[in-house]
Amino acid sequence: VLGKPLQTQTSVEVNNDVFSHIVTSLLPAHKYQVRIEASTPVGSAASKAVTFTTPEAAPTGLLAPVITGIGSRGSSISWTLPAQPNGNLSQLTVSINNSVVLNASNALLFAVNASGLEPYSTYDVSVQYCTAVGCTSSDSSTLNTLPAPPTGIAAPTVTVLGD
After folding, report:
1. Is residue 121 classed exposed, middle or buried when 0-12, 13-18 and 19+ CB atoms within 10 A define those classes?
2. How many CA atoms lie within 13 A of 156 on its CB side?
3. Are the beta carbons of 74 and 67 closer than 8 angstroms?
4. Is the pLDDT of residue 118 over 90?
5. SS3 readout for the chain
6. pLDDT, tens only, 133-157
7. Which range, of 1-10, 88-97, 109-118, averages the lowest pLDDT?
8. Do the beta carbons of residue 83 and residue 61 sit within 8 Å?
9. CA distance 58 to 134
């Protein structure tokens, strides 16, 4: 599981007839241990620890992609992992104007070259990461391709006019 586990110790005072406690602020897809320790004025005893893992959640903290190497018909697109993966990242999608240009189960890719774009055009580029339970999309980055020389200019037709 990606991320940093929470390592804290919490003490809860209970009276003799309360035997439950709700633990809050746990992180998704993290392993925790809980044990009970009871104390009296003459000593203490502890239970065996119980280990559990919190369920996965959709990733959070996904930054917009970075656009570099901009040309008239393409550019390079790069991105970073979500700040909080919240589980195993299982899917990566990169889209340009809502059309998928990369759909990968290898969520550890960090760049793609976009080609076949139109010169002097504007595109919205976004990245989406998924866990088994949900997906999160980044904000879009704007890609403005550069102008290009004209292409496909047909030869003129010449008509000779006589007297």
Report:
1. middle
2. 3
3. no
4. yes
5. CCCCCCCCCCCCCCCCCCCCCCCCCCCCCCEEEECCEEEECCEEEECCCEEEECCCCCCECCCCCEEECCCCCCEEEECCCCCECCCCCCEEEEEECCEEEEEECCCCCCEEEECCCCCCCEEEEEEEEECCCCEEECCCEEEECCCCCCCCCCCCCCCCCCC
6. 999 999 999 999 999 999 889 999 9
7. 1-10
8. yes
9. 4
pLDDT of res. 14: 66
The residues pairing with 161 across neighbouring beta strands, listed in sequence order, are none
Q: What percent of the chain has pLDDT over 90?
A: 72
Q: Is the pLDDT score of 90 beyond 60?
A: yes
Q: What is the mean pLDDT of residues 43-66?
A: 95
Q: Is 45 exposed, middle or buried (0-12, 13-18, 19+ CB in 10 A)?
A: exposed
Residue reference for tokens 């004025």: 41
Residue labelled with tokens 């007839």? 17
**Cα 124 to Cα 142: distance, rounded to the nearest angstrom:** 5
